[in-house]
Amino acid sequence: MKQNSKIWQKFDIFSLRLRLILGIALVSALGLGGLASWTSWKMQQILINSHKYNIAKIADRLPRDVLLYNEMMPIETSLQKAINNLTSKDTFLWVKGADHKIIAKSNNWHLLSDETASQLMSLTEMLVKPELGKVSQRYFILCSGTLPGNGKVLGKLFVVQDVTSEQIMFMAMVRSLAIASILVIIVICVVIAFYIQHSLQPLRQLNQMTAVISLSDLGQAQLYLKNAPTEVKELANTFNMMLSRLAQSWEQERQFVSNVSHELRTPLTIVNGYLQSVLRRQNNLNPHQLEALETASLETERTIRLLQDLLDLARADSGYLHLRKELCLLNDLVAEVVSMAEKYSGRVIKIESINREIEAIIDYNRLKQVLINLIDNAVKYSAADTPVIIKLNLQSEEVIIQVCDHGFGIPLQHQSRIFERFYRVDEARTSTTGGSGLGLSIVKTFVESMGGKVSVRSRLGEGSIFTISLPAAPLPIKV
């Protein structure tokens, strides 16, 4: 299946290379085919016209010779003598009277087969103008005319010339010319294919260079092709200007998000502090006021977390995300996170781990935030009576942490995008869950900043498994 896919890609009917090859092949076929056809037609005309001229000359001369000989001998003898004088190996003459009986003929009919001679002599009508005809698998130039004598018409003159050998040679030459034309077209297509492939190489290089440009490379990315055609160089320059504009736009957007997040977080923190202070003196509040202030406090805290997430992402984009990496015991970290999550959610959260200590060089607080986010998602999007399982294992030189639930699951078409910022799966993430769409983006950013990877495997109705892979701490060298 993969091999068929590669072949299909190689012969993509919409590719520029294939279109150019087919276009040149078509033009070559039409050009060479037209030239070969015109050459064949012209050669045939030259060959046939020379024979036509000889036949017409014989048909015109015979009556004069008959009249000349008739002055010295009887008409029948004069007619036969004139025919014999004009007869050659390939030229055949005969005269038919008014009753369509042959009254004179050339003496070389034995050179033809009986069938061919019979079919020729049975002809009663021929054009006055010499024309090419086929009789009994042989080719002849045919011509006829009236034969006058002594003031009356002696009969009808028929003159033919056998051009079979010339016609067969001509047809063989035409076949050779057609084969040569096809071979030339094939050679032209092969040469042009290699030439086009070489000519399109700069475009492929341009495609490869642009394919590897990431968001972090926008400011430094420059496309340069040394030996490319002028048009491709202009395209590369246009790409460079576009990348520069994109980098400027992205930097402005990142700076805006960072500034807004930083500026709004401080006043909201102050507001939340005042709200908490008022809530601590709740004895002076009626139930409606208490409910309103609690709602305001919760929304303020949610907004502060959102702004903190945006600020962390902006710092990560600009390369200023501060990590305090140190050697940590992951068994203790996972146990601490699970204990906090159980108290906060009231759910059963199980730990499945190998019976040994697992260490990694990580940022303790960042990985803690990552696990809290994943457990929070598992709790939100699974039924209350189902457990959430945290698995901690060591595989080769990697630490594997998995957060498993038996919840709603994530549709396959959304799984490749759930780590994008503000992306929400409508089927599972409703406004009642309170998600901002940044949690998984934060998870991916923090895990990758620590040199790890995060992935998801999910089925609808069966739940989801989020897997974090981190480099394991190197084993101590034994002395």
TrEMBL record:
A single MF term (Gene Ontology): phosphorelay sensor kinase activity
Residue ranges crossing the lipid bilayer per the database entry: 20-41, 177-196
UniProt keyword terms in alphabetical order: Kinase, Membrane, Phosphoprotein, Transferase, Transmembrane, Transmembrane helix, Two-component regulatory system
Domain HAMP: 197-251
Pfam families: HATPase_c, HisKA
Cellular compartments per GO CC: membrane
Coiled-coil zones: none
Subcellular location per the Swiss-Prot or TrEMBL entry: Membrane
Domain Histidine kinase: 259-474
EC number, as in UniProt: 2.7.13.3
KW Iron (keyword) present: no
Catalyzed reaction equations: ATP + protein L-histidine = ADP + protein N-phospho-L-histidine
SMART domains on file: HATPase_c, HisKA
Function: Photoreceptor which exists in two forms that are reversibly interconvertible by light: the R form that absorbs maximally in the red region of the spectrum and the FR form that absorbs maximally in the far-red region.
Annotated protein name in UniProt: histidine kinase
Source taxonomy: Bacteria, Bacillati, Cyanobacteriota, Cyanophyceae, Nostocales
